[in-house]
Write a structure and sequence with these properties.
Layout lengths: L1 H21 L1 H4 L2 E4 L5 E4 L6 E3 L4 H8 L5 H4 E5 L8 H5 L7 E3 L5 H5 L5 E5 L3 H9 L5 E4 L4 H14 L3 H22 L7 E10 L2 E6 L5 H8 L3 E2 L11 E3 L1 H7 L3 E5 L5 H10 L7 H4 L3 E3 L14 H12 L9 H13 L3 H12 L2
Parallel strand pairs: 3-4, 3-6, 4-5, 6-7, 8-10, 8-12, 12-13
Antiparallel strand pairs: 1-2, 8-9, 9-11
Helix pairs in contact: 8-9, 9-14, 10-14
Amino acid sequence: MKKYSFLVLFIIIFPVVIIASGNKEINTFIEVEDTTGQIVKLEKIPERITFVGKASNIVADALYMFPEAGSRVVGVGNTNQRNGDFIEVLDPDYSNKIYLEHSVGPEQIAVTNPDLVIMKNFHKNGLGASISQLGIPVLYLNLETPESYVKDFEMLGKIFGNPRRAEELIQYYREQQDYVSMKINKVNANPDVLFIYHSTRDGVSAFNIPPESWIQTRMVTMAGGNPLWVDANPGNGWSKISLEQIAAWNPEQIYIVAYKEDVLEVVESIKQSSEWQELRALKNDKLKAFPVDFYSWDQSDSRWILGLKWLAKQIHPDLFSELNVEEMTKEFFRDLYFLTDEQYEKEIKTRLGW
């Protein structure tokens, strides 16, 4: 009688063990330390992810490097910087996502019923804190420097249950940086470079420079240029400069971005201005617009690696004579975002104007 009871008990329990084992990935506990030092604990790999807040395009472009993103993202923040939503190209189910503006509140985010909300780390004490009070886990990404991308990819590899993809991405960025640095290490002289963000308000033009810690400044240095403006902006954000200051610096090369305007039109207008004609950059034909597809390549968006290689070729064309920028770009969107050749030609190349 006792043997019979034990057998029945074994038969009842054993299938449960098999089921639990079969669902090992789903039921695996996840613990991640994010870029703010916060420990995020999840009972399983999140199946419903919402990204939101300012700089959502930078977050989205990191998430969608993982093939699982399309099926797990349910709520999307505003990613349109002027040229459209890049995520719409990547995600065939984009129209069914819940769209969230930058001004969204925590209650609207909760409507997406997320297992996890992902946003940039500067939201922690604002929108992020409000979301956490609702009991919704929040993961903060940095995505501001080459170093931070490594940690952010590692975190996303755990969140998506795909550490192999994370390592592929880390390896890609390392190899591209090494390619540039190995050549730049041979440079004896770094030309004087000025990076400018052009903006217009009420018809008045303004020229802005980034602080030393930002990716734009880092990019100029990594590409073998001398960033003239570093001492002029000790702050944490864009700083306006005058045309007189630009003339005083008289840089050999100038690179311009314009996030809310057509940067090619801005550059052409500057070239036609008599006030700029005596600058060395114009005489050297080195007043250039940074490339833009959906987003400008100078930002801390995933495209910064494209911006670095493009800029290195501009600053030191002889060193990078073999670099085919268009082929480099096509490979980037194919390998990192799984775009077909047809998608690249239609969505990326047309915006770049090549």
